[in-house]
Amino acid sequence: MEMLGNRRLAITQQQAWEALNDPETLKKCIPGCDKFELTGENTYSVGLAVKIGPVSAKFSGKVMLSDIVAPDGYKLTFEGQGGVAGFAKGSSSVTLRPLADAAPAAPADAPAAEGAEAAPAVAPAGCELDYTVQAQVGGKIAQLGQRLIDGAAKSTADDFFKRFEAEMQSRYGPPPAAAPENAEAPAEKTGAVAGFMKKIGLGKKSDKDAEPGAGGEAGGG
Asked: In this structure, what are the phi and psi dihedrals at residue 191, rounded to the nearest 5 degrees?
C-alpha cells in the first residue's frame, strides 16, 4: 500500500514540529491509539485498535524515527502485530515547510511612500506538511483487498489531521488571519490624533464637546 498527501496547517513550522515529536499529542490524534511511549532514543512503543471492514484487532508495535532534520522533517518506520488479524509494517516520510504566500514585512528602516499608510506586518500564514506512506500488511487484513485497505488508510489519515488541527487550535488559538483587525489599536490611534487636532484648533468638535459651549453662549445672551 502506498499513500501520499499534503496538508496546510494554521500553525508555525516550529509549532508543528514540536507537536509531531510529542508522544502525548500523537496519542491523542492517532485514531484508536491508547499508547505512544518513548522507550529509547527516537523509539516508541505503540498500541492501537484498528478496524478495517469486518476485521477488528488490537495492534502492538514500535515506531522509530530517523533522518531527523529539525524542524524540516523525519522518516518514520513502524511495525506492529495484531494477532490472528495479521501484521503491518512500513515507513513514512514527513516534511514541513513554512508557507510562502504571506507577504513579508517591510524592513524597519525602509522609508514609507509619501501619503501612504504604513502596512501592518503580516503574520506567517502557517506551514505545509507533505507525507508519504509505504506499508505492507499480512494475515486476515491482507485478504480484505487493496481497495478496502486503501480506503481505511485514507480515512485514518483524514481523521488524524482533523484531530491534529483541533488540538493545535485548542493549544495555540485560531489562525492569526481570523483575528479582528480594526479593533482597539486603530481606535486608540484615531482618538490620539483627534485629541491633538483639537488642541491646535484644527479638529472638528463633537456634539458632546459643543454642548457646554452652546449652553454658555445662550446663558450669556
From this structure: -60, -40
* H-type alpha helices, the chain: 13-20, 23-29, 146-172, 184-199, 207-220
Same domain for 163 and 204, yes or no, is no
- Total number of residues shown for the chain: 221
Q: Identify the domain containing residue 207 by its residue range.
A: 188-220
Q: Which residue has the cell 487550535?
A: 169
* Res 40: pLDDT: 97
For residues 152 and 205, membership in a common domain is answered with: no
pLDDT (0 to 100) of residue 100: 73
Residue 3 has a pLDDT of: 96
How far CA 190 is from CA of 3, 183, 185, 193, 195, in Å, comes to: 54, 12, 9, 5, 8
Residue whose cell numbers read 459651549: 213
Averages of pLDDT over runs of 10 residues in the chain (221 residues) are: 95 97 97 97 97 94 98 98 96 94 48 52 76 96 93 95 96 69 47 54 52 48 46
d(CA 90, CA 64): 11
Is 10 a domain residue? Answer: yes
CA distance 16 to 72: 10
